[in-house]
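Suppose you are handed a protein chain with no further information: no name, no annotation, nothing but its sequence. What can you learn? This example shows the usual starting point.
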Amino acid sequence: MAIEVRIPTILRTYTEGERAVEGSGASVAELIDNLDSAHPGIKERLVEDGAVRRFVNVYVNDEDIRFTGALETAVSDGDTVVILPAVAGGSGRGAGRWAADSAGRGAGPWAADEHGRGIGPWAADQAL
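A reasonable first move is to predict its three-dimensional structure. Written in structure tokens, the prediction is:
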């Protein structure tokens, strides 16, 4: 039995469109390393400077790893790990990190250029 990892739509380009993949490891860090060996590039979208990226939420059996040991959170066969991008909202033209430019395009991690290509940290080097 393996660990089921549920993949958000924005990262499915790394898993050939799969909504869920299987992985192994004794901790979330080892699991992410295992996922990256099977799905190159996914780790870069999840981890930065040895920690889960700020706009990524990871849950092990419905428990947020920020409160259970972060990347050192233990996992075992039969566990379910859910990866969710953080969601932010607002008017779309406010100030700050999620402000839109003059053309109404978002400026956050899921931002796209004028051709629809992702330019934020979630970009997968292909048209969205």
